[in-house]
């Protein structure tokens, strides 16, 4: 049984995950060694060692989630516990969390930090997948099938916005939207949802205007201004984006060479986190960027392919949610680095430094591999069963003819 299940795993997806994680580890070392020495007065391999430790923990979590049947996530008590833990951790962060990057988003554990908002992503994915899988027979009912999950997600996003972390809240909202659109709603229900959203915006807009100064601080407005014209305030709000442009432009087609970045020498703040793609572009050029995008694209497309093949609504929605998360986060990160959208501080999946992100992605990839395995195993079992039936009938017919 175990041997058959192991044969059913999608090893091409696993190979892509290992390859992009290993590449990310190399780039974290290359992009962070100068920052580690100059800014943090630590060893050049400080962030490399931490990222390696995160990846080892992530590998254990990936193996665990890949072997344990994903159907166990349907347990209602488990979902309630996860939702309550999410709410309590976000409340704790709001009142006593560690501040970094102008947001109170972290819980400190000695030298390490945990970002609860990262793990809310998978909690929302599991919750929505379970809710919409169970409500298929009354999914178009506004009060029973539509409103409760939207209210729950809105509450969680509200706590994250209070930190404030608009980037993560936006990602969770977009993941929820992708799952809602794929959950089986009729066009009529989607039109009602759009009307409901418009009504909510009409109610919320006066409050946004009233608390405009608190919501849109000078720092956040600076991000919008730098997005429109970074050279207008090159020494302050536009500094990061301008140096990102320099890194991308100087890399050209072939790059300056691994480890040869100039922008990581204090010009580009935090080059190993949300702006790591700029360093990749500078050091490895077009080929480095293409390599990363090809691997990320493969993982996303593979995830949607698994969702399409899976006959179980819960498994299919889980795969859609995980794939959407990676795709949305990648687009937001690349948009910020290239100046297509305002900078949000969102990391690049599998590549950027960050323990919370790596552990979350590892767990998600294990779940995706598990869904793929069960789908492939069922398909093979069906084929084997359909082949064996005719042979049994043929043997029975032969015996009759012999008589």
Report on this model:
With 403 residues, the protein is mainly α. The protein has one domain. 72% of the residues lie in helices and 3% in strands. It is built from 14 helices and 3 strands. It has a 3-stranded antiparallel beta sheet, with helices on one face. Strand 2 and strand 3 form a beta hairpin. Helix 6 runs antiparallel to helix 7. The longest helix has 48 residues. The radius of gyration is 24 Å and the shape is globular. It starts with a helix and ends with a helix. It is an enzyme of class 2 (transferase). It comes from Bacillus altitudinis.
Beta-strand content: under 5%
Number of H/I helices: 14
- Global morphology: globular
Mean pLDDT: 83
Order of helices and strands: HHHHEEEHHHHHHHHHH
Number of strand elements? 3
| Distance between the first and last residues' Cα | 38 Å
Strands of the widest sheet, in order across it, are 1-2-3
For the record, the count of structural domains works out to: 1
Helix content: over 70%
Largest sheet: 3 strands, antiparallel
Rg, Å, rounded = 24 Å
Stretches where pLDDT is under 50 for at least 5 consecutive residues are 391-403
The secondary-structure class comes to mainly alpha
InterPro entries: Cell_cycle_FtsW-rel_CS (IPR018365), FtsW (IPR013437), FtsW/RodA (IPR001182)
Keywords: Cell cycle, Cell division, Cell membrane, Cell shape, Cell wall biogenesis/degradation, Glycosyltransferase, Membrane, Peptidoglycan synthesis, Transferase, Transmembrane, Transmembrane helix
Transmembrane segments: 12-32, 52-73, 80-100, 112-133, 145-162, 168-186, 193-212, 284-305, 317-341, 353-375
Family: Belongs to the SEDS family. FtsW subfamily.
């Amino acid at each position: 049984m175990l041997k058959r299940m192991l044969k059913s795993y999608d090893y091409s997806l696993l190979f892509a995950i290992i390859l992009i994680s290993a590449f990310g580890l190399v780039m974290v070392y290359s992009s962070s060694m100068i920052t580690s020495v100059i800014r943090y007065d630590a060893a050049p391999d400080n962030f490399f060692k931490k990222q390696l430790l995160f990846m080892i923990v992530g590998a254990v979590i990936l193996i665990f989630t890949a072997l344990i049947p994903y159907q166990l996530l349907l347990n209602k008590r488990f979902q309630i516990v996860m939702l309550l833990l999410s709410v309590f951790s976000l409340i704790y962060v709001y009142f006593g969390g560690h501040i970094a990057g102008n947001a109170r988003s972290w819980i400190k554990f000695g030298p390490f930090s945990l970002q609860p908002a990262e793990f809310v992503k998978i909690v929302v994915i599991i919750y929505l997948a379970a809710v919409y899988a169970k409500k298929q027979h009354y999914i178009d009912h506004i009060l029973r099938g539509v409103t409760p999950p939207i209210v729950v997600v809105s509450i969680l996003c509200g706590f994250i916005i209070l930190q404030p972390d608009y980037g993560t809240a936006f990602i969770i909202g977009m993941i929820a939207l992708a799952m809602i659109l794929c959950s089986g709603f009729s066009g009529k229900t989607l039109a009602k949802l759009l009307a409901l959203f418009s009504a909510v915006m009409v109610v919320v807009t006066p409050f946004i205007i009233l608390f405009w100064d608190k919501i849109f601080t000078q720092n956040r407005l600076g991000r919008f201004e730098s997005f429109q014209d970074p050279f207008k305030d090159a020494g302050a709000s536009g500094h990061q984006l301008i140096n990102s442009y320099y890194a991308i432009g100087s890399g050209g087609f072939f790059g300056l060479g691994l480890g040869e970045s100039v922008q990581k020498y204090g010009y580009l703040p935090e080059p190993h986190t949300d702006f790591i793609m700029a360093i990749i572009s500078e050091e490895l050029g077009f080929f480095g960027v293409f390599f990363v995008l090809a691997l990320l694209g493969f993982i996303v497309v593979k995830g949607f392919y698994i969702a399409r093949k899976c006959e179980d609504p819960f498994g299919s929605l889980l795969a859609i949610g995980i794939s959407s998360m990676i795709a949305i986060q990648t687009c937001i990160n690349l948009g910020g680095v290239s100046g297509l959208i305002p900078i949000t501080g969102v990391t690049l999946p599998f590549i950027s430094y960050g323990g919370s992100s790596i552990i979350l992605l590892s767990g998600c990839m294990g779940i995706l591999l598990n869904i793929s395995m069960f789908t492939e195993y069922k398909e093979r079992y069906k084929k084997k069963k359909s082949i064996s039936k005719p042979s049994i009938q043929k043997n029975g017919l032969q015996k009759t003819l012999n008589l």
